[in-house]
Amino acid sequence: MTGTLMRVDPTGRFDYWSFPRQRVTLQYRKHGRKGWKSVAKARTNGEGRFARRVRRARGTWRVVYPGTRHYAYVSRTARH
Questions:
Q1: Rounded to an integer, what distance in angstroms lies between the CA atom of residue 77 and that of residue 63?
Q2: Which one of 8, 13, 40, 41 has the fewest CB atoms closer than 10 angstroms to its CB?
Q3: Residue 66 above 80 pLDDT?
Q4: Quick check: helix, strand or coil at residue 75?
Q5: CA–CA separation, 55 vs 6, rounded Å?
């Protein structure tokens, strides 16, 4: 799974910026199930990009960012 963690500038002067050196959790939900399972963690590089190889059967993936004191938590469904 690959992606880029983005943030909104808190001053409102800019739109989205990459978010470097942050931890994200990769979660997986098996096809036909309701619960999510954390299967791996990754850290964004200096450009906010992350990559992690994880093998699973058919299902849905998402990346969860836990947030900081200044930036809120967010999760997004990534792929089926």
A1: 7
A2: 13
A3: yes
A4: strand
A5: 25
Beta strands in 1-80 (DSSP E): 2-4, 6-8, 16-18, 23-30, 37-43, 49-51, 59-65, 74-79
CB 28 within 8 A of CB 61: yes
Three-class SS state of 27: strand
pLDDT tens digits along 50-62: 999 988 778 899 9
The number of residues making up the chain comes to 80
Does the pLDDT of residue 77 top 60, yes or no?
A: no
Q: Supply the pTM of this predicted model.
A: 0.76
